[in-house]
Design a protein that fits this description.
By secondary structure, the protein is an alpha+beta fold. It folds into 4 domains: 102 residues, Roll (Nuclear Transport Factor 2, Chain: A), CATH 3.10.450; 69 residues; 138 residues, Elastase, domain 1; 162 residues, Orthogonal Bundle (Neutral Protease, domain 2), CATH 1.10.390. It is 26% helix and 24% strand. The strands form 5 sheets. Strands 1, 2, 3, 4, 5, 6, 7, 8, 9, 10 and 11 form an 11-stranded mixed β-sheet that branches. Strands 15, 16, 17, 20, 21 and 22 form a 6-stranded mixed β-sheet that branches. The chain has a 5-stranded mixed β-sheet with strand order 18-14-13-12-19. Strand 9 and strand 10 form a beta hairpin.
Amino acid sequence: MRKVIAVASSTVLAAGLGAMAPLSGAAAVGNAPDDNPQAVARQFVKENRTDVLGTRGDAYRVVDKVTSKDGAAVRYERTYRGLPVLGGDFVVHVTENGRTDNVSVAQDRAIRVNNAPGVAKSAARTQAREGATSATVRRVGEPRLVVDARDGRPVLAWQTVVHGVQADGQTPSRQSVVTDARTGKVRSADEAIMTPIRVGQKADAGPGQADGSEAAEAGTGSGIFVGDVEIDTTSGASGFEMIDPSHGNGETCDMNNTEFSCDTFVDDDNAWGDGTNADRASAGVDAHFGAATTFDYFKETHGRDGIFGDGTGVPSRVHYGTGYVNAFWDGSQMTYGDGAGDAAPLVELDVAGHEMSHGVNEHTAGLEYSGDAGGLNEATSDIFGTMVEFYANNASDTPDFTIGEMIDINGDGTPLRYMDEPSKDGGSFDCWSEEVPASDPHYSSGVGNHFFYLLANGSGESEFGNSPTCDGSTVTGIGNEAAAAIWFKALSEYMVSTETYADAREHTVQAATDLYGEGSAEVQAVEAAWTAVSVG
């Protein structure tokens, strides 16, 4: 397949190469040590341009490096004649002995385009406004020229960021609208504001369950969903503040049912909330605990230093808007609504883990939000939101394989999504078909969710559900720990922005092989679980 290209092993000739420096035309400066994977990758790309579908117009820079016991994965983004390339990312895999063995490439053709647009910037801006799918457009940014290499033949395009409001009238919208620079035709309009609930989906949520600081203070909190927990705060001039120095100074604030301003929670005795929505700090406790727990999960389980990979904490904003039945990740922070009648904040732990996992995706594979990649994007968030819940093992919110089961978003006690049999929600796919890539990512995610459930728990009845297979086969599960390790390794080291479900099969098989060995029970389980959801 085009996504993973096996290459002949090569030794390296360059050393001392900067992480953000272009690769094109770099001079060899001597033998690189085997423990310098960036040098290995850079020299490999220089000498094997065709393996990354490169041309003389390409230049590259490193955007991430993941090291493991079996080597390193060096992730690149690409420009063409100075223009950013959408879908131009690739990963070079360097073995532990300093040799390259394969590359994962997002695009499927080399770029050869003329950089002179046939459509003026002003016309592209107008077309972007008309092509945006936001219910309300408030501001249209300045278009920039790019190369769109995400699907098929690369073309010169204008990319414009359009700001507005989504169909529910409250969720912000930030869409990347890409128009053909020759014809003016809109190629895509992808939303960057991620929500656990599809905007426009029926939601009838009833009431849910009832700076300048030097060191962390051990506070106590009573959350709406997590119950009584310990949270880290700081002591400031105004009393204790809901700022967590143990987790990158993640801050939790009260939006006071507005959409723009937010006040950091402050308390005089470091005891927060009363477990009900009557105390505004109760929702803050859930969000603060959720941010810290998600941070700890990725760090302790996968060795990732927080959501962004740099130790920085995540801001959490609660009590957003009026009657807002959703939550969202906007690329830098979490925002939670209070639900119908402002009586049911959507601050459940797996919702928090789901949304912040969008941030992990953004800083690793960068899965697009359309086609199969969109479903894999949402599945990744459901998978890790669930794993955060298991990591917390909270007595008030016992772990399971349903999403948002405590926020009662449907008003009848049913969860938002099921992983054992995704179609039980009335819209999600259990099995891959030609319909999946054209569907909303919240529903096409069902294929990835079903795969992961089968991989972890197996088919048929288990403690967490009764999972059928699409072909009547039987799958034996390998447990949460191994399943999550495989998915994270595939996401961070192999997957690319244009990932398909077929690619994900190949990449998770490779990740399982790296972790557990060729032909291992884990590899066989990965293959069986994908076959069981019709991804062959």
